Amino acid sequence: MADRAHAVEEGVLRFAPLVLVLSLGWYAWRLGDPADWGMIDLKVYWSLSPNLLGDQLYSINMPFTADFPLPFTYPPFAALAFLPISSLPWLAARVLWQVLSLVCLWWLVRTALGLLASRAGQPYDATWSRRALLWTGLALWCEPVRKTLDFGQINLVLVAGTFAAMVATRQAVAGLGVGVAAGLKLTPAISGLYFLVTRRFAAAAWSVAGFALTVALGFVASAGDSWRYWFELLGAADRVGPVGSAINQSLRGALSRTFGHDVGTSWPWLLAVAVSAVLTGFALRAAVRAGDTLAAVVAVQLFGLLLSPISWSHHWLWVIPLVLWLVHGGSRRGWPALSVAAAWVVVTGADLITFLIDQQPSIWEVPRPWPLAALGWAYPALGLLSLAVMPRLLRGGRTGAPLPPTSKAERSAL
């Protein structure tokens, strides 16, 4: 059976470059004239970031719909980082961001496969390169990627950068990379958990220093906006968007739709977080014992997505390395791994979230009929399931902490 599967893959991989070219061509045709690209989130970054220089970053919103003007929701350092793009014409900014995001998609796939090749004791050869091309072409059509590209979101750039930092060999580079990523958008801060469980305490310290530097730069650029963000706006989830909308695939979003109101940090949410924390703990322990870097990285990031008050469906890009680990990881154990991978492919490949959004009367209305509330658990339920099966899939792996690559062969794989 294994030999037959390998032979089938070999045949498919011969067409990997063609699959990527056709996928990109279809995507370009779907996009059409660049002048018609909406990319609404990029427009927020592009149009509102210059307000930082006038201490009005969080005072001016960009009109989107009558009931939901779009504010700038990231830390002041993010606005500072977007100033060069804000200086470009709107058309040039859109084209540049599309190209950069697509390159980051390939990099995300390639980094994950590089870790898998290293763990299997194989060089990153032509077979792995073709796998990267094939999976990049396929991943282009999964919902988190499509939504990120359509909205012009920062997700692909942020996830690729965070991933590269987490597996960097040098402690300072790893820590500073994660710290700067957290300064752009707070969610990458969960990556510090990876440094702690892998005993990379120097990297954890550097991440704190990197984050503190971004905060300081924000105060230099605009003390008023920085004070307002860190001491007034931080934690206001409803300012980011409607917590109960179907596009919010966090535990809080799913629970709110189930109970018919925003559960906030009440007992249902605390119980769900406790369950996810226990599952994450077992998954991380198994990953550390097996010396599986990719499994540890993915487990930490899944926990972050579940824990966050807002995890839009396009935030779930970490599903891509998860699926690659399930399919290609030497630690996989037959049908359980492939079944979970198939479930993720179906859920993210279908336009489920768009369907659920179309079914809700408004983005602010929380109650749902029970079938829609159940479907609204798609991402968090599969996230919990993935964490639950990880220890079993990692059982029997080699012993050793999931440290970043240190040998020359392993570094070349990345």
Can you put this structure into words, describing what you see?
The chain is mostly helical. Helices cover 67% and strands 2% of the residues. The chain has a two-stranded antiparallel sheet with strand order 1-2. A hairpin with a 2-residue loop joins strand 1 and strand 2. The relative contact order is 0.12. About 3% of the residues have low confidence.
Overall structural class, as computed from helix and strand content, comes to: mainly alpha
Tally the helices: what do you get?
22
Low-confidence segments, given as residue ranges, are: 399-403, 405-410
| Rg, nearest Å | 21 Å
Helix-strand pattern, N to C? HHHEEHHHHHHHHHHHHHHHHHHH
Strands of the widest sheet, in order across it, are 1-2
Query: How would you characterize the largest beta sheet?
Result: 2 strands, antiparallel
What is the average of the pLDDT values? 90
Question: What is the gist of this entry?
Answer:
Residues 399-403 and 405-410 have low confidence and may be disordered. The protein is 67% helix and 2% strand. It has 22 helices and two strands.
